[in-house]
Design goal:
- It is a single chain.
- The chain is α+β, with helices and mostly antiparallel strands.
- It has twelve helices and 42 strands.
- The chain has an eight-stranded mixed β-sheet, with helices on both faces.
- A hairpin with a 5-residue loop joins strand 12 and strand 13.
- Helix 2 packs across helix 12 and helix 6 packs across helix 7.
- The radius of gyration is 26 Å and the shape is globular.
Length: 716
């Protein structure tokens, strides 16, 4: 094994230990399964040898990495404040400080003399002046002292604002320790819960906290009730879900009248409800689960009556409401539903938020997320108004508006070239009041850049949306490009601004997003047509997008790099096998490249709940054969591959490090040609990678330097 400071000139070669995997009469010989045992010193030594090799092979890029890091740092207002949010008698906000990795949560008193809209106009806080009455609620930098990894889970205030429940993960394995702080004294209460999932929900009177724990597969499966001031051994189990396909969560309605327990598989939902002022009462089912039916519910007061507003995808008038409908029902009988907004093939309903005198509807149309405000009148409902922002591509979403009665709505708007803008929308007048725009230092001008929508056509005739972002002053002809894709779990890759991305764009690179099937950009069927036995569409869509961009002269194979992480890393592994000739390089973050081995093992984290996404290869031979046909690891062939950089984390509980480790080992042993395959393992991080903003910037700089070098832009 290579010494720590020794220059490694030859790539590590993992030993082969054949292990047979037999299912449905098929035998697969896995030569690298031995890498799964991270307690084995030989496995750790191999990963460290891979790290040393990657470090040696990318050492010449250190000056470029330093430059990109400095650019990100120079463009970021490191000492900054978020826009304050009013809750009760305080304005709440977070601070960041130059030189500090993590945020600081604070509050200051409201102006008790202010009236009307003025009482809801956030104070203009300055970063370099002291704030009268400021109270530091939680300083994550203090909590993170001495830790290699830090993540804040819960941050939940009691309704009277006196107690703060928060939780910390210090290893990256997503198991948190929950504590309670008395904000009147600054003292930590003796209460401590070890091994909780991230969230915490208060009862209305602040006497109890509800939280979740996870099972051996990291699935949140149990809700507990903790009485403040008692030992965690006295906590009461209030809900347990034995079906391994379902994840459990707990929260409250926006009105705070009800506590809600939600359980969901990938295709089925069930809600349980309890009055928040009766924390020791029994939760009751809202609507019993029915396989394949998803729903969410929000409490609203309509014309003086308690109602539940229910988004669901059940059958309506004999037709499955794939893109969801909005219904209302009496709180006393949630099954007595009346449709408020019917099904549309071009609009996917996603969220409904209720306030005392209006509703806010979140939905997507034309592959973009949108918002509409719906006033409530004494008789019922007013006229729905969609918010307009004057951008071709954008994302609009609800910001933090925690009060039930308030005359403003916090709204966030961004695009690929528009830094995040925070508005307060005034429903009574239609005004959009700009409260803050994300600062980008160094003279950023959005007019120097452009964003466009393009479309590729898949082999089955489906039009695939593409987002393209570049500088306006680029010369004509094929350009270096980073093509990003995800395409799973109905997750949408919506327009968002990135400070770090400017380091690519300003060197002449185009950033593109392939909005492939399996995501949610174009509605529920877009997702349905890229999962289970249609999963190949995700991969072939990405190849169709790459081919379209090459054929259109936008880029060329010798300057096109593909990029994806997690399930998007599965996409990267699949396209590496399908069309290696289209790409100059492939960047794969925490890549899910050995999916069949994982989904065949119910003891692994997340496996059983994933069967609704991929199918169950244990029970179904067709699913087994289909997954085997696209599994990146099992389809590595003796052919030329482009350069590949795989990045993973030793403590990742979602996509285990062993998947990219096995993939890289097999690629190196099997492929032809002289392209380089690199593996970088973070030895103290989880699924989200390293913690701390400076460490994350270094990680981005590492990846971007490799990308720029791959397309010949390292010296730009």
């Amino acid at each position: 094994m290579a010494g720590e400071n020794q220059t490694v000139v030859s790539a590590p070669i993992a030993k082969k230990v054949p292990v047979e995997r037999v299912h449905h009469g098929d035998t697969f010989v896995d030569e690298y399964e031995w890498l799964r045992d991270k307690e084995d010193p030989e496995v750790i030594a191999y990963l460290e040898e891979e790290n040393a090799y990657t470090a040696a092979r990318t050492d010449q890029l250190q000056p470029l990495r330093d430059k990109i890091f400095d650019e990100i740092k120079a463009r970021t207002q490191e000492t900054d404040l978020s826009v304050p949010t009013r809750l009760g008698e305080y304005w709440y906000y977070s601070r960041s400080f130059e030189g500090k990795q993590y945020g600081v949560h604070c509050r200051c008193p409201i102006d008790a003399q202010a009236e009307g809209i003025d009482a809801w106009t956030p104070p203009q806080l300055e970063v370099d002046t002291s704030i009268e009455g400021e109270q530091v609620l939680l300083d994550s930098n203090v909590l993170a002292e001495g830790l290699d990894f830090f993540a804040l889970g819960a941050f939940s205030l009691s309704h009277d604002g006196n107690l703060l429940a928060y939780s910390v993960d210090s290893t990256g394995d997503e198991r948190y320790t929950l504590r309670i702080k008395d904000l009147r004294t600054g003292e930590l209460l003796p209460d401590e819960v070890v091994g909780a999932a991230p969230g915490a929900t208060w009862s209305l009177d602040g006497t109890h906290i509800f939280y979740q724990t996870v099972d051996e597969s990291w699935r949140p499966d149990t809700v507990w009730r903790h009485r403040v001031g008692t030992a965690s051994t006295d906590d009461v189990k209030v809900f347990h879900e034995p079906d391994e396909r379902y994840w459990v969560s707990v929260g409250a309605t926006r009105s705070e009248k009800y506590l809600m327990i939600w359980l969901g598989s990938k295709i089925t939902t069930e809600g349980w409800v309890l009055e928040s002022d009766n924390p020791e009462g029994e939760f009751r089912v809202l609507l019993p689960r029915r396989e394949g039916v998803e729903y969410s519910a929000e409490h609203a007061v309509i014309a003086g009556e308690d109602r539940f507003l229910i988004l669901h995808n059940d059958v309506v008038d004999g037709v499955k409401a794939e893109n969801f409908v909005l219904a209302q029902a009496p709180a006393t009988d949630p099954s007595d539903m009346t449709i408020l907004i019917g099904h549309r093939e071009d609009v996917r309903l996603e969220d409904i938020d209720a306030f005392a005198d209006h509703l806010v509807l979140g939905y997507r149309r034309g592959a973009l997320p949108r918002l509409a405000v719906w006033p409530l009148t004494p008789a019922g409902y007013g006229e729905l108004t969609e918010l307009e922002f004057g951008l071709e591509l954008f994302s609009a979403g609800m910001g933090s508006s925690p009060e039930w009665e308030q005359p403003t709505l916090r709204v966030g708007v961004t695009s690929f070239i528009t830094p995040m803008q925070v508005f307060d929308y005034v429903p009574a007048t239609g005004e959009l009041l700009l409260r803050k725009e994300q600062p980008v230092l160094g003279g950023y001008n959005a007019e120097d850049y452009e964003q466009h929508r393009d479309w590729a056509v898949a082999s089955d005739g489906t039009r695939i949306p593409i987002s393209l972002i570049q500088r306006r002053d680029l010369p004509p002809g094929p350009k270096p490009m980073l093509l990003y894709g995800y395409g799973s779990y109905e997750a949408s890759i919506d327009p968002s601004f990135s400070v770090s991305r400017l380091s690519l764009l300003d060197r002449g690179m185009v950033f593109a997003v392939a909005h492939v099937r399996g995501g949610g950009e174009m509605g529920r069927l877009w997702y349905e047509h890229g999962k289970t036995l249609s999963k190949m569409n995700t991969f072939t869509d990405f190849v169709s997008v790459a081919s379209h961009l090459v054929d259109a002269g936008t880029t060329a194979p010798d300057r096109l790099v593909a990029d994806g992480g997690s399930a998007g890393g599965l996409l990267m592994g699949a396209v590496a096998n399908l069309a290696p000739e289209l790409f100059a390089g492939i960047l794969a973050n925490v890549p899910f490249v050995d999916p069949l081995t994982s989904i065949l093992d119910p003891s692994l984290p997340l496996t059983v709940i994933e069967w609704d996404e991929w199918g169950n290869p244990l029970a179904d031979k067709d699913v087994y054969e289909y997954m085997k046909s696209y599994s990146p690891y099992e389809n590595v062939e003796a052919k030329d591959y482009p350069p590949i950089l795989a990045i993973t984390s030793l403590n990742d509980t979602r996509v285990l490090y062993v998947e990219p480790a096995k993939w890289v080992a097999k690629l190196r042993a099997t492929k032809t040609g002289d392209s380089e395959v690199l593996l970088k393992t973070e030895m103290s991080a989880g699924h989200g990678g390293v913690s701390g903003r400076y460490e994350k910037w270094k990680e981005v700089a590492f990846e971007y330097a490799w990308v720029l070098d791959t397309v010949g832009l390292a010296d730009k």
